[in-house]
Amino acid sequence: MLFEDQPSTRRPHPLVTAIVRNGANANNDTVHAYVPPEPRSCTTGRVVLTDKGVSVVTSPHARQEIQVLNEAGSSNRTFAYSPNGDFLAVVLETNVTIYNARNLEAADNIINTIDYKGVIEVDFSPSGTYISTWARYVPKGANDAEQPRNMHVYKVVDGTLIASFSQKAQNNWKLQWVQSEALFARLSATEVHFHSPTAELSAGKNLPVAGRITGETLTSFSISPNKAGKMFAAVFSKEKNGIPGSVKLYDLEKAATASGPACVSTRTLFNADSVDFMWNNDGSSILVHTHTDVDKSNQSYYGKSTLHHLTTVGPHYTTQIIDLTNPVHSISWSPNSKEYIVLHGAMPSKCTLFTVNSADAAAPSKAIYEFPPAARNTVTYSPHGRLILTAGFGNLAGDFSVWDRADFKELCTVRAANASSAQWCPDGRHILTSTIYRRLKVDNGVRIFHHSGVLVATMDARELYGVDWRNDENGKWPMKRGLSAKPEGIQDAEAIKRATVQPTAGKYVPPHLRGKTGAAAVSSITKAREAQLKPQGPIGVIAPLTAAAPQKPTLVGQPPAEDKVLSKAALKNLKKRENKKKADGDETPSRPATSSTPAAPVVPAFIPVDADSKMIEIEKKVKTLQKKLKQISDIKKKKDAGETLELTQIQKMEGEAALLKEMAELNLQLSA
Question: Which residue stretches belong to region Disordered (predicted)?
Fold first, then answer.
């Protein structure tokens, strides 16, 4: 079982839902819905989708399982919660089933079923009134006047079709709604179209366009939240034919009129191929993260990124370029909309906290704190803004740290091995890490940690496709003055082992040291090596280099020559060399004089040839001649046997006399 059950008198918990494949067959998909544990309490609740159907456990004290979510044998593709947490949509091969997410254990928990095959993604409107679906675009024949409509908008309660569109691309298919749900917008070619969901839908036609934003190179847009009294749309246009790109802010007060929204601010962007928009909660500021495919300075293989801060507080609508180090890994707004954090720079990356003052026309953003550098590429605030999570996923090890924003104290650093994502629980006290199948084919599963670093729950899966908390927009988890106490955590040793760093294999220990303790064994093994590496003498004093006598060249495997008295021939040759040096003006003695003062090592430009080395060369020549004479002897035998000889073989036989003469001369030199 996922959690240890303990009594709890607290409010119901938000659910976390996941799609899991427990076997190789797609019909073994499982949807799990879990209830996160309270501090000092571990309640249980989950939804499990297997080949027998979907079972739900939501009671804090019981473990009964009820088949409620879908028919047995069906395959799940994805799921989505509504922003307010009221509805859960599960996408099957043949339909989309919408459930009452706040009462999943009820027998009549199905709100509606949309019978449409091939749906791949779904999305809800802000209040959960409407749901939009997207299926793969399959073009019709060239002679067909109308292309297929693969994107639909329905009412959640009764399934009424509101609108249908043709949408080829999957990356920008989602609709963007105003907060009141009076309008929604979608990108159509290089225009942003605004539609009213209450407009009448004519058969075979698209929903009427209530307003539009046009641009020759418009590629993306984003609508702000409506908590500051006004709503804006940020629109990005790419660079084209020498005309720089730009980000424009439009006031949506007149979005549904013939004139369309009014542009209130423009920020020119150079070298921007794409952008990411990030609004704060009240819609007073937006961060524009620009990307380029190629870094012209040749400092990165992955292009260049820039961060711009734009404000929607008139009349100046300030814009500012944030000074950061490339690349920008992650950005997170605080829930209070007054500050944000940026992870940037090469690993170990920098983590900078900025405060926002929209009234400051010169610099609305100001850096106020720098966290210690670490291998992190993800940062996010807790739902209340009290805690900050920095993590390293993807090609990093999976470490994450939790910081207290009140005093910038590090609460914990934990290793979530192989994790690919992390999410805060709506209660602001727990963190969910997961390993998804599309990121890693092994070690799939979910880990839930308390903000103190204690592991409180685990769930392993053969294939995990998605995981998400149920949204909580009703404020059921208000901010508290103090942090929750450290829970007891799970007692399963195997779960703890899987969720922590696996110990690496130790160093090789010789048999005579294996009986000793770990510290003593390691110390004994490394003492000799440390003695070799440690410089002799006091720390900080470098011993002077001493002159090394030049070594005579030797053959591989030959024992080193010992000092001995030179033969008469060697002495005679040595005397001749010294006389020749004197005649040439070189007075350097043949042997260096001894001195008590260490001299710098001298590497000779050449190694003088002495008698021993000369004898070695003669012996090499003798061996070579012996091989050639042996070949000639073999050729003679072939000739005597009546075989036909080649021209090269005949030439070798003719040179036998010269080889014998050279061999006799070499033997005389060796015997001298």
Answer: 572-600
